[in-house]
Design a protein that fits this description.
By secondary structure, the protein is of the alpha+beta class. It has one domain (about 30-214). The chain contains five helices and seven strands. It has helices spanning about 30-35, 45-50, 70-80, 125-155, 195-210, and strands at about 55, 60, 90-95, 100-110, 110-120, 160-165, 175-180. Helix 4 (about 125-155) runs parallel beside helix 5 (about 195-210). Residues about 1-10 and about 15-25 have low confidence and may be disordered.
Amino acid sequence: MSDETSGNEPSLGEGFVFEDDAATEDAANIEELFERNGLPLPPLSTEERGAFRPARSGAFATRGLERSLYEIDSFIAEVEARPDLPPYAAAGFAGYGVNSWGVHCYAVDETLALFVQLRWGGAYGDVDADRRAVAEAWRDIAALREAARAKVASGVPAGRRLLVVISDFGRDSGWAWLPQSGGVEATVLNEGEGRADIFAGAAAAIAAGPESSS
């Protein structure tokens, strides 16, 4: 996956303020945090990881986070309402109770708004199966982001983003192009039969472009 970025793109974290710089589970950086959990790093660019700062307990981001990554609906609502939302990336671990814990990878750029929330760390989880699922999802994310970058090179109307949501915690998953006008209260997602099918549908949507959804 290429780490190259256009000089015309907004800076990561532009327009956001960090709430605090508290230690993130005592991990010095995102690499240490994921190594401690025995998971590969999320498929984010060198630039994105380099801009990470502790944002909340168990999470690093290129922007401040007002809420836990587990509250995925809040992050989706934000990008639905704001076509001009500056690019950002966030990753880490969040949840509640005994078994509702997950690993998160959120990445918003000019063309793609990706929110992935997978089971990890729950008391009753299958560690090996969950680790395989995370590795597979990371590969699919890398491929989708590469396709999105290629589509930008061929031209995508300004303000159009493909929303992709994957959640293991009961939230609807799927993909849909967001309107240029923003202000959407609840996007109707194109759902698939599992994560692989959703990623395949999102890749096809990127290839076809937003005009195909009109």
